[in-house]
Specification:
Layout: H1 26-49, E1 52-55, E2 61-64, E3 71-73, H2 75-83, H3 85-94
Antiparallel strand pairs: 1-2, 2-3
């Protein structure tokens, strides 16, 4: 009895002539690469320059630009924290040798 070979169904697509993506010239590729690099640098500078605030969906105050994620507190929490400002400054000064500085 001859061994039965499994038949393979090939899923081929026919692409009409002229529908292939156009090849980019080396100069165009280099120009696009430079544009993307410049855009990346601009985004990095924009991200690191300023802090901003907005009201969150739940009615809290979100401060952006301090780190990767915003700092979000409700107004009574911000008031409480602001009243502690001098205590926080003193605490930082007293523990300066143990604290790291992020640049």
């Amino acid at each position: 009895m001859p061994a039965l070979l499994p038949t393979l169904a090939l899923n081929l697509r026919v692409v009409p002539r002229g529908c292939y993506p156009a090849k980019m010239a080396d100069e165009e590729i280099q120009a696009e690469l430079e544009r993307l690099r410049a855009e990346n640098e601009a985004l990095k500078k924009k991200r690191n320059t300023a802090t901003s605030m907005k009201v969150s969906e739940k009615g809290a105050v979100s401060v952006y630009g301090l780190g990767r994620f915003p700092v979000t507190l409700y107004q009574e929490q911000w008031h409480k924290l602001l009243l502690m400002a001098e205590d926080i400054k003193t605490f930082i000064a007293e523990n300066k040798d143990r604290l790291k500085v992020k640049e």
